[in-house]
C-alpha cells in the first residue's frame, strides 16, 4: 500500500502564476495556427486502401504463457528469446548479423549508426513538397528559460501533452501551460525537488484532470490540474533506489502503469475509501528476470470507447530482448511475446499504438522496433473473445531509431540517432521528407536510465540503452508532435495541402508546385490534410488552385523575360514555363483557358507565342488535342511555314478534326501562309497544298472536308500517267506520288480513311463503288485522241503490277455475296485480261503476275470468276517461246509461280512439259516430274541447268536417304546416278566421292572402270581415300587431259571431308584401288606422296615400293623401306642422294649460302640424320656404326679433296654440316670410337689433323655442355627428393588436435575406457575413436601389419557394405583415409605384444604409409626430368617429321595430354616443423 494523503494533509499548491511574467503568454496564432488537436482519422478515407498483400496472420497460441512463466524466464541478452510456437515469428525478417559491444563509458564516443548495414530505402524523394510544419512555441520556451533563471526551476526534463502542456524540470517542478501558451500552474517546489530529485516522467489522464509525476529518486505524485492540489504522494509502490522511467495513465482513470530503472513494471490502482485516497501496487514484470525499458498502454478515443478490444486494457512492454503484450483486464493474461532477434545493444526499444482502418474494420496496430527495422502488429478480437495478432509488412531502414510516432493512421514520423526526422508513408513505405532536428537540442533521459540520482545501481545493458533514450522528451497529441529541448519546445504538424503548395510557390518552385497539386488532384499524394468531400469536389477545389498557379506562372514568365539578348536565351527562358502551362491546362481539360486567356498573355511576346505554338504539336499528333480555335490554327500554320517546316504542317492538318471547324475561317490562315492573299474556297486550299507537295493533307481535306474521294485520285493520275504511257522513267517525286496513290486506293477499297482512321460506315459502300467506277472508266475526263482505253488501270499496271494486283486481291477477299461487288470483280478481271494480253508493252513478269493472280482467284472454293482457258494457253506459249532468249530466268520464274498458285489445272500437262523442255525451263520440268514421281528424270534437269547443277548431289542424297519414297523410286534414282557418274565426278569430285562413299560403296570398282580420264580418276580417288583431299571447281567442257590438269591444279580450293568415310574392309579386300591412287599421285602430285602414305593404310608395301621406284621417287622409296624394316636399305638410298647433292654443291663457286644446291644438301642431310636417330635406339653398336660412320665419311670426303684455292665459304659450309653430323653421332656412338675412326683415315693419320681441329674442339665443347647439364639435372632431382622427404617427415610427425574428448562411435569419454588393448585413434579430420570401436565397425583396410584405419564418420556416407581398399572408392573431398595418431588410453602396460613396434623394425608403419600416400596425392605431378625428356622428344619429332613413320602419334601418350597435368610455376610451399 502506498502512502496515503488525506484531504487534511494535502499540500496547497503555490500560486499558479506566482513569480512568473503574466504577460509573456502570447496567442499561439502568432507563431502557428491554433492548436487544433485532431480527432481520430476518418476511417472512410482509408477503406479502399487495404493493408499490403504480403501480411500474414499469426496463429493464436493454444495455451498462452502465464505471467508467472514469463517472470521465471531467464532474460539473457546474449541469447535472444525464442517463442514457444515458432510460427509466431518469421525469423527471416530479422537481422542476425553480428554486432560490437562497448562499455557504458565509451558509448558517448560517437553515433553507433556507422556500425549498421547501409540498406537504402527506395528513392522516394519525388515531389512531395514540405510535409511537416516545424514551429517554435515561443511563449512556452521563454517561460521555461525564465523559470530556470528566476525561481531556480532547473532545466526541462520531461513533457506530456493533452489539452494542456506539462513540462517537468530537473528541480522537481511541473509547469502547466494552456493552449495559448499561458502558464496556468506551477506544481511542486524546489524543496520537494531536492528531496525527490528531477521529474523523470509525466502523464496526463484522458480528461485532463489529473497529472502523474515520476521522480528520479523513485517517488510519484498525483496532482489535480483544475485546482493545482497535490492528491497523492506515492513512495512505496516499487523497490526503493530506482528511478521512475515511465508512468502512464490507462483509459481507466483509476489505473496507471509505472516502469522503474530496475526494469520492473508495476500496476497502480487508485482508490478512495471514506474520503481517503489510496494507491495499491502490483508487480506485472520483475526486473530480476528481464529489464523492461519501455511501456505503452493502449489508449482509445471517445469514439472508440465501445471497441471490443478496449475491455482488455492492453499493455505493451519492451524488454531488452523481447516484446510482450498483456491484458490487465478482466484478469492478467499474456497475449503475445515477440523476440527481437539480433540487434545493436545500444539501440532503443520503441513502442507505439494506433487505431488503423483495415478491411473495413478499425483495429489497433502496435508498432515496435529496436534498431533499423520497424514491425507492425495488427491486433483484433474474434467472435470467441480471443485476441489474434497479424504481422504486417515490416519497414527496413538504413538508420537507427530513437523515437517512433504515429501522426495519423497512414503517416509515421521517425527520429534517428543523429536527430534527423523522417516522415514515412506507412502503406507505401515511401519517405516523404527529412528534417534536421539538431536545433531543438533535444533532452535525453540518460541520467534516469543510469539512475544517477540513486547511485547508478542499474545494469550495464540498461545504461547503454539509455544513452539515446528520449522517451519523456517527445509527446504527441491530436496529430501534433511536441519536442522538448534544453531551452525550448517545438511542435511538428502536417501541413495542409494548400500550405504545401504555397510553400513551394514561396520558394519559386512553380513546376514542383504544379506537380504536387496535380498529385492532390489525382488522389496520389501522400499525407494529405485539408481535403474533404467526395472525389469530384476535391478535384474541383484543387483545379481552382492550379488555375491560379498557372496564371501566376504565365505572369512571372513574361515579367522575368530578358528584354534583350540572343533569341536562343529567350526561347530557353520560355521553354521552362510555357510547356508546363500548356500541359496542365490540357490535363485539367481547360482548353477555353488555354486558347483564350493564356494564349492572349503569351501572344504579347513573339518568342513566347512561338514556343506556345510549338508545344501544341505533340498533343495534336497524339490526338490529345483535336479542336483548335481558328485564330490559333492560323497562327500555328503561319509559324511552321515561316520556319520551313511544311512536313509538320501536313502532319498537323491530318490530325485535325476539320469537320467541326469553319473552313473559310480556319484555313484562311493556311492560304495566307502559302500565298500573300486570303483565299477562302476549298479548291484554293487544296491548290495550295498541291503546290507545296502536301499530298496527305490535300487528300485529307478532300475526304474530311468535302466528302470527295475521287478528285485526289484524278490529280495524282495526271502526274504519273504521261511518263508511264510514254515509256519514260519516273522521278523520285513521281514514285512517291504513285505509292501514295496505291495506298490511298487500297484504303478506300478497305473502308479505311487515308492517312489514318476509318471511313464512316454509312459511306463505305458508296466510296467503294465510286472507286471501282473510277478505275474501270474507258477514258479519262480530259482524254486525248491518242489515249489508250482504261487509262487508270493501265497506269497502275505499268507503275507496279504486283502491288496493284495485291490491292485487288485484298479487296476481293472482302467480297461476300454482294451481287454488285461480284459484277465489279468480273468486270475488272476482264479489263485486266484485255489490257495485258492484247498489249505488248508488258513484260513477261507482269503478264505472269496477272495470271498468277487469276490462278489464285480461280482456285478459291467459292470462285465466281470466269476466265477463258485459251488465254492461259496463249500465256504459256508467250512465256515458253524458244525464239525469245531475253528474260529467260524471269519467264521461267513467272511460269513457276503461276503453276504453284494453282494454274496447273488450266494447262494440259504433257504439252506443258514439252514446251518447258523446249524452252529449257528445267525448274518447270522438275515441278512437273515431281508431281508424277519421276524422280530419276529430275537428275537430268539438274545436270542440264548450269545454275543448279551443283544441287544434284544433295537431291540424290535426299531421295536415297529420306524415308517416304518407294523402293522402286529409289532404285530408279540410283541407276540414273550410276549412269551419269562420270559427269557427276567431273562436276565436283569431292561431292561425288561423298555420294559414292554413302550410297555406292560397293560399286567403286565399276565406277573406276567408267572413268576414262586419268586425271579425273585421280581426283575422284583422292577425294575418296585421302582425308586431306581438296575438291576442284567445275571442269569446263571441251578441255583435253593436259588442260584439265592445269585447270584443276590452278583453281583447287579446300574441301571439307565431313561425311566421307569409305569402308576400310572393302579397301583391305581391294588394295589395288589404293595402289592405283598412289600411282596416279606419283604422276600428278609427287610432292604429296609421303604425306599421303602416312595417312593411308590399305596398300601393299612391295607393290608400292615398285611404283615409287618406277617414278624414281627415292625419298618415298626410303620411307617405305624404313616402314618395311629395311633400315640399311633406306639409309643407302638417302646416302646416295646426299652424295649426289654434295657433288653438285662442290662444283659451285659463288653464292654458296644462297644457292639452292646448298639448301638441298642441308635438307637431305637433316632427313638422313633423322632416319639414323629414329632407328639407332633399336640397333646394336655395330649396326649404329654402319649408319653413322658412312654418313660422317660422306660429309668429310669433299673436304679431303678441296684445295687451298677453293672458296672459303665452301669450307665453312661443309664444316658446319659436318659438325652437325658429329653432334648427332655423339648421342649414339662413344666419343673415343669417333676419334679413332677419324684418326684411322689415311689422310688425317699422316699429320693433317689441323684441318679437323675445329671439329674435334667442337665435340669437346659439346661434351662439357652435356656434363654440366647432367650435373644440374641431378642437383634438381636431389632437391626435389629432399623437399618431398621433408614434407613427408613433417606430415607424419605433426601432432593432431581432436575436436572433442569423446569417442565418435560410443560417445564415451576416451579416458573412461579401461580395456588394456584399447588405443586412442585421432584422425587429421579431428574425429577421435577407440581402436576397438573402429574394429567393431570394420573401419580398417588391409590385414596384418599393413592395416590402415579409416574414419568412420567421414566415410559413413560413402560406404556401401564394407569399405573398399582403394582410395578411389571414396568421394573426392572426404577425409576418408586421414592421418592417424594412436596413444594408449590408460597407463597400464599393453598386453598385446604384437601391437607394439620395435625400434629396429624397418620401413614405415601403416599410419606413416597412409600419410605418405596422402602427401603423394596432394603433391602429385610430373617430374622435371619427364618434362625435359618430353620437350626434347617433341622438338626432335617436329624437326624430322618428314620421314616420320605412320604410327600412333607420340602426343597421345604425352604428359602434356594428361587431364591432371599442372605446371607449377611457384616454388613449393614451406612446411612447418
Mean pLDDT figure: 77
Q: Detail the poorly predicted runs.
A: 1-63, 66-126, 660-680, 1030-1054, 1149-1154, 1359-1402, 1435-1452
Terminal Cα span:
75 Å
Class from secondary-structure proportions: alpha+beta
Largest sheet: 6 strands, antiparallel
Overall, the morphology is: flat
**Helix fraction?**
40-55%
Number of strands: 35
User: Total helix count?
Assistant: 53
- Please tell me how large the radius of gyration is: 54 Å
Beta-strand content estimate = 5-15%
Would you kindly provide a written description of the structure presented here, covering whatever features stand out?
The chain has 1473 residues and is an alpha+beta fold. A hairpin with a 2-residue loop joins β20 (361-370) and β21. The chain is flat. It starts with 55 loop residues before the first strand and ends in a 34-residue tail after the last helix.
Short description:
The protein has 1473 residues and is α+β, with helices and mostly antiparallel strands.
What structural keywords apply?
1473 residues, alpha+beta, 6-stranded antiparallel beta sheet, 4-stranded antiparallel beta sheet, 53 helices, 35 strands
Tell me the layout of helices and strands.
Elements: E1 56-58, H1 67-71, E2 132-136, H2 138-150, E3 156-161, E4 165-169, E5 174-177, E6 183-187, H3 190-196, E7 199-204, E8 210-215, E9 220-224, E10 230-234, E11 244-249, E12 255-260, E13 265-273, E14 276-285, E15 292-297, E16 314-319, E17 322-327, E18 333-339, E19 349-358, E20 361-370, E21 373-381, E22 387-391, E23 395-396, E24 401-406, E25 411-416, E26 420-425, E27 430-436, H4 446-449, H5 460-465, E28 474-477, E29 480-484, E30 489-494, H6 497-506, H7 510-522, H8 535-559, H9 567-575, H10 578-587, H11 591-602, H12 606-621, H13 630-642, H14 646-654, H15 663-666, H16 668-674, H17 682-691, H18 695-706, H19 711-725, H20 732-750, H21 764-775, H22 791-799, H23 801-813, H24 819-838, H25 844-858, H26 869-879, H27 888-900, H28 909-918, H29 922-931, H30 935-944, H31 952-961, H32 967-979, H33 981-987, H34 989-999, H35 1004-1010, H36 1014-1025, H37 1041-1050, H38 1064-1069, H39 1071-1084, H40 1089-1095, H41 1101-1110, H42 1114-1124, H43 1127-1146, H44 1156-1176, H45 1181-1201, H46 1208-1226, H47 1231-1239, H48 1242-1245, H49 1253-1293, E31 1319-1323, ...
Antiparallel strand pairs: 1-22, 2-30, 3-4, 4-5, 5-6, 7-8, 8-9, 9-10, 11-12, 12-13, 13-14, 15-16, 16-17, 17-18, 19-20, 20-21, 21-22, 21-23, 24-25, 25-26, 26-27, 28-29, 29-30, 31-32, 31-35, 33-34
Amino acid at each position: 500500500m502506498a502512502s496515503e494523503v488525506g484531504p487534511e494533509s494535502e499540500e496547497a499548491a503555490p500560486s499558479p502564476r506566482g513569480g512568473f511574467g503574466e504577460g509573456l503568454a502570447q496567442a499561439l496564432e502568432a507563431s502557428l495556427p491554433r492548436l487544433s488537436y485532431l480527432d481520430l482519422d476518418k476511417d472512410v478515407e482509408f477503406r479502399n486502401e487495404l493493408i499490403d498483400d504480403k501480411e500474414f496472420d499469426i496463429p493464436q497460441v493454444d495455451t498462452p504463457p502465464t505471467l508467472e512463466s514469463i517472470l521465471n524466464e531467464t532474460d539473457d541478452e546474449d541469447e535472444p528469446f525464442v517463442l514457444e510456437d515458432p510460427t509466431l515469428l518469421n525469423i527471416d525478417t530479422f537481422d542476425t548479423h553480428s554486432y560490437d559491444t562497448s562499455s557504458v563509458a565509451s558509448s558517448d564516443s560517437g553515433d553507433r549508426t556507422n556500425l549498421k548495414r547501409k540498406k537504402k530505402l527506395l528513392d522516394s524523394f519525388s515531389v512531395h513538397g514540405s510535409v511537416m510544419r516545424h514551429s517554435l512555441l515561443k511563449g512556452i520556451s521563454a517561460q521555461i528559460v525564465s523559470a530556470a533563471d528566476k525561481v531556480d526551476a532547473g532545466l526541462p526534463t520531461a513533457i506530456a501533452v493533452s489539452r494542456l502542456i506539462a513540462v517537468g524540470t530537473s528541480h522537481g517542478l511541473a509547469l502547466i501551460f494552456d493552449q495559448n501558451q499561458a502558464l496556468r500552474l506551477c506544481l511542486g517546489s524546489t524543496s520537494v525537488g531536492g528531496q525527490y530529485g528531477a521529474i523523470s516522467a509525466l502523464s496526463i489522464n484522458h480528461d485532463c484532470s489529473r497529472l502523474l509525476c515520476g521522480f528520479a529518486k523513485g517517488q510519484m505524485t498525483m496532482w489535480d490540474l483544475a485546482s493545482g492540489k497535490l492528491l497523492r504522494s506515492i513512495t512505496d509502490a516499487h523497490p526503493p533506489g530506482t528511478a521512475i522511467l515511465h508512468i502512464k495513465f490507462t483509459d481507466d482513470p483509476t489505473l496507471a502503469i509505472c516502469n522503474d530503472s530496475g526494469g520492473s513494471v508495476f500496476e497502480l490502482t487508485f482508490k478512495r475509501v471514506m474520503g481517503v485516497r489510496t494507491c495499491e501496487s502490483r508487480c506485472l514484470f520483475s526486473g530480476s528476470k528481464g529489464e523492461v525499458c519501455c511501456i505503452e498502454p493502449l489508449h482509445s478515443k471517445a469514439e472508440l470507447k465501445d471497441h471490443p478490444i478496449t475491455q482488455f486494457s492492453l499493455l505493451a512492454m519492451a524488454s531488452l530482448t523481447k516484446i510482450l503484450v498483456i491484458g490487465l483486464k478482466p484478469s492478467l493474461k499474456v497475449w503475445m511475446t515477440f523476440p527481437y532477434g539480433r540487434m545493436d545493444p545500444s539501440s532503443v526499444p520503441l513502442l507505439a499504438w494506433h487505431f488503423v482502418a483495415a478491411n473495413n474494420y478499425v483495429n489497433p496496430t502496435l508498432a515496435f522496433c529496436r534498431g533499423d527495422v520497424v514491425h507492425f502488429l495488427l491486433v483484433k478480437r474474434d467472435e470467441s473473445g480471443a485476441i489474434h495478432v497479424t504481422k504486417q509488412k515490416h519497414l527496413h531502414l538504413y538508420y537507427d531509431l530513437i523515437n517512433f510516432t504515429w501522426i495519423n493512421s497512414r503517416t509515421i514520423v521517425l527520429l534517428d540517432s543523429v536527430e534527423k526526422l523522417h516522415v514515412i508513408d506507412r502503406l507505401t513505405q515511401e519517405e516523404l521528407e527529412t528534417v534536421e532536428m539538431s536545433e531543438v537540442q533535444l533532452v535525453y533521459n540518460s541520467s534516469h536510465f543510469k539512475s544517477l540520482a540513486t547511485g547508478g545501481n542499474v545494469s550495464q545493458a540498461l545504461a547503454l540503452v539509455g544513452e539515446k533514450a528520449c522517451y519523456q522528451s517527445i509527446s504527441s497529441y491530436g496529430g501534433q508532435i511536441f519536442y522538448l529541448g534544453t531551452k525550448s519546445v517545438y511542435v511538428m504538424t502536417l501541413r495542409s495541402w494548400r500550405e504545401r503548395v504555397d510553400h513551394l510557390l514561396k520558394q519559386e518552385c512553380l513546376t514542383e508546385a504544379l506537380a504536387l497539386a496535380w498529385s492532390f488532384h489525382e488522389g496520389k499524394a501522400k499525407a494529405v490534410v485539408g481535403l474533404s468531400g467526395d472525389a469530384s469536389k476535391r478535384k474541383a477545389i484543387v483545379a481552382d488552385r492550379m488555375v491560379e498557379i498557372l496564371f501566376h506562372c504565365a505572369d512571372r514568365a513574361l515579367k522575368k523575360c530578358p528584354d534583350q539578348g540572343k533569341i536562343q536565351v529567350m526561347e530557353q527562358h520560355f521553354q521552362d514555363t510555357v510547356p508546363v502551362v500548356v500541359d496542365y491546362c490540357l490535363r485539367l481539360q481547360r482548353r477555353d483557358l488555354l486558347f483564350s486567356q493564356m494564349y492572349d498573355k503569351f501572344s504579347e511576346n513573339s518568342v513566347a507565342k512561338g514556343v506556345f505554338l510549338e508545344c501544341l504539336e505533340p498533343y495534336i499528333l497524339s490526338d490529345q488535342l483535336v479542336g483548335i480555335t481558328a485564330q490559333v490554327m492560323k497562327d500555328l500554320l503561319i509559324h511552321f511555314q515561316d520556319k520551313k517546316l511544311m512536313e509538320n504542317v501536313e502532319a498537323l492538318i491530318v490530325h485535325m478534326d476539320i469537320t467541326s471547324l469553319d473552313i473559310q475561317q480556319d484555313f484562311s490562315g493556311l492560304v495566307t501562309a502559302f500565298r500573300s492573299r486570303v483565299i477562302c474556297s476549298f479548291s484554293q486550299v487544296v491548290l495550295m497544298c498541291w503546290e507545296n507537295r502536301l499530298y496527305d493533307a490535300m487528300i485529307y481535306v478532300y475526304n474530311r472536308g468535302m466528302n470527295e474521294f475521287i478528285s485526289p485520285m484524278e490529280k495524282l493520275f495526271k502526274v504519273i500517267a504521261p511518263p508511264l504511257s510514254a515509256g519514260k522513267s519516273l522521278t523520285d517525286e513521281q514514285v512517291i506520288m504513285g505509292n501514295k496513290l496505291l495506298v490511298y486506293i487500297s484504303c478506300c477499297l478497305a473502308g479505311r480513311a487515308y492517312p489514318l482512321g476509318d471511313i464512316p460506315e454509312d459511306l463505305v459502300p458508296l466510296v467503294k463503288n465510286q472507286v471501282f467506277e473510277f478505275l474501270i472508266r474507258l477514258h479519262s475526263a480530259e482524254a486525248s485522241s491518242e489515249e489508250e482505253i482504261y487509262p487508270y488501270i493501265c497506269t497502275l499496271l505499268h507503275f507496279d503490277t504486283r502491288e496493284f494486283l495485291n490491292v485487288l486481291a485484298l479487296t476481293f477477299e472482302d467480297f461476300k455475296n454482294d451481287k454488285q461487288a461480284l459484277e465489279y470483280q468480273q468486270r475488272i478481271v476482264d479489263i485486266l485480261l484485255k489490257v495485258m494480253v492484247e498489249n505488248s508493252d508488258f513484260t513477261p513478269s507482269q503478264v505472269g503476275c496477272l495470271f498468277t493472280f487469276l490462278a489464285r482467284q480461280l482456285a478459291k472454293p467459292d470462285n465466281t470468276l470466269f476466265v477463258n482457258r485459251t488465254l492461259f494457253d496463249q500465256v504459256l506459249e508467250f512465256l515458253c517461246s524458244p525464239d525469245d532468249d531475253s528474260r529467260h530466268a524471269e519467264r521461267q520464274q513467272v511460269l513457276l509461280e503461276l503453276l504453284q498458285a494453282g494454274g496447273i489445272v488450266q494447262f494440259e500437262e504433257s504439252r506443258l512439259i514439252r514446251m518447258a523442255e523446249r524452252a529449257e525451263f528445267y525448274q518447270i520440268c522438275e515441278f512437273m516430274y515431281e508431281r508424277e514421281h519421276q524422280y530419276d528424270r529430275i537428275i537430268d534437269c539438274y545436270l542440264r541447268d548450269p545454275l543448279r547443277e551443283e544441287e544434284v548431289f544433295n537431291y540424290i542424297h535426299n531421295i536415297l536417304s529420306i524415308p517416304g519414297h518407294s523402293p522402286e523410286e529409289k532404285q530408279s534414282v540410283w541407276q540414273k546416278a550410276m549412269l551419269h557418274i562420270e559427269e557427276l565426278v567431273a562436276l565436283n569430285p569431292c561431292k561425288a566421292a561423298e555420294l559414292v562413299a554413302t550410297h555406292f560403296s560397293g560399286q567403286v570398282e565399276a565406277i573406276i572402270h567408267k572413268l576414262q580420264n586419268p586425271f579425273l580418276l585421280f581426283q575422284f580417288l583422292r577425294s575418296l581415300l585421302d582425308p586431306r583431299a581438296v575438291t576442284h571447281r567445275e571442269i569446263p567442257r571441251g578441255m583435253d587431259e593436259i588442260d584439265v590438269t592445269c585447270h584443276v591444279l590452278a583453281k583447287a580450293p579446300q574441301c571439307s571431308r565431313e561425311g566421307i568415310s569409305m569402308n576400310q574392309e572393302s579397301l583391305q579386300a581391294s588394295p589395288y584401288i589404293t595402289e592405283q591412287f598412289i600411282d596416279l599421285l606419283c604422276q600428278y602430285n609427287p610432292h604429296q606422296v609421303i604425306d599421303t602414305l602416312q595417312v593411308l593404310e590399305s596398300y601393299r608395301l612391295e607393290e608400292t615400293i615398285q611404283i615409287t621406284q618406277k617414278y624414281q621417287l627415292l625419298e618415298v622409296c626410303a620411307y617405305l623401306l624404313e616402314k618395311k624394316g629395311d633400315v640399311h636399305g633406306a639409309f643407302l638410298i638417302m646416302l646416295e642422294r646426299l652424295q649426289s647433292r654434295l657433288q653438285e654443291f662442290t662444283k659451285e663457286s659463288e653464292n654458296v649460302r644462297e644457292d639452292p644446291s646448298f639448301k638441298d644438301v642441308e635438307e637431305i642431310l637433316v632427313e638422313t640424320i633423322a632416319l639414323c636417330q629414329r632407328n639407332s635406339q633399336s640397333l646394336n653398336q655395330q649396326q649404329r656404326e654402319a649408319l653413322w660412320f658412312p654418313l660422317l665419311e660422306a660429309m668429310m670426303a669433299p673436304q679431303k679433296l678441296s684445295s687451298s684455292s677453293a672458296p672459303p665459304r665452301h669450307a665453312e659450309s661443309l664444316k658446319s654440316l659436318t659438325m652437325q653430323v658429329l653432334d648427332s653421332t655423339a648421342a649414339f656412338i662413344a666419343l673415343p670410337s669417333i676419334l679413332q675412326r677419324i684418326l684411322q683415315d689415311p689422310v688425317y693419320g699422316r699429320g693433317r689433323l689441323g684441318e679437323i681441329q675445329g671439329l674435334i674442339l667442337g665435340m669437346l665443347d659439346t661434351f662439357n655442355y652435356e656434363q654440366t647439364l647432367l650435373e644440374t639435372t641431378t642437383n634438381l632431382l636431389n632437391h626435389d627428393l629432399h623437399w618431398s622427404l621433408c614434407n613427408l617427415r613433417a606430415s607424419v610427425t605433426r601432432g593432431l588436435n581432436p575436436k572433442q574428448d569423446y569417442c565418435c562411435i560410443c560417445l564415451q569419454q576416451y579416458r573412461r575406457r579401461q580395456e588394456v588393448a584399447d588405443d586412442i585413434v585421432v584422425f587429421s579430420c579431428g574425429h577421435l575413436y577407440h581402436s576397438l570401436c573402429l574394429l567393431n565397425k570394420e573401419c580398417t583396410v588391409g590385414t596384418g601389419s599393413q592395416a590402415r584405419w579409416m574414419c568412420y564418420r567421414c566415410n559413413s556416407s560413402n560406404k556401401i557394405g564394407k569399405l573398399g581398399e582403394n582410395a578411389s572408392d571414396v568421394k573426392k573431398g572426404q577425409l576418408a583415409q586421414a592421418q592417424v595418431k594412436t596413444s594408449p588410453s590408460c597407463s597400464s602396460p599393453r598386453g598385446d605384444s604384437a601391437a607394439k613396434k620395435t625400434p629396429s623394425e624397418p620401413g614405415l608403419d601403416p599410419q606413416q604409409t597412409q600419410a605418405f600416400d596422402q602427401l603423394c596425392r596432394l603433391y602429385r605431378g610430373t617430374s622435371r626430368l619427364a618434362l625435359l625428356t618430353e620437350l626434347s622428344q617433341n622438338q626432335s619429332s617436329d624437326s624430322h617429321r618428314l620421314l616420320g613413320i605412320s604410327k600412333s602419334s607420340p602426343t597421345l601418350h604425352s604428359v602434356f595430354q594428361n587431364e591432371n597435368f599442372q605446371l607449377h610455376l611457384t616454388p613449393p610451399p614451406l612446411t612447418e616443423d
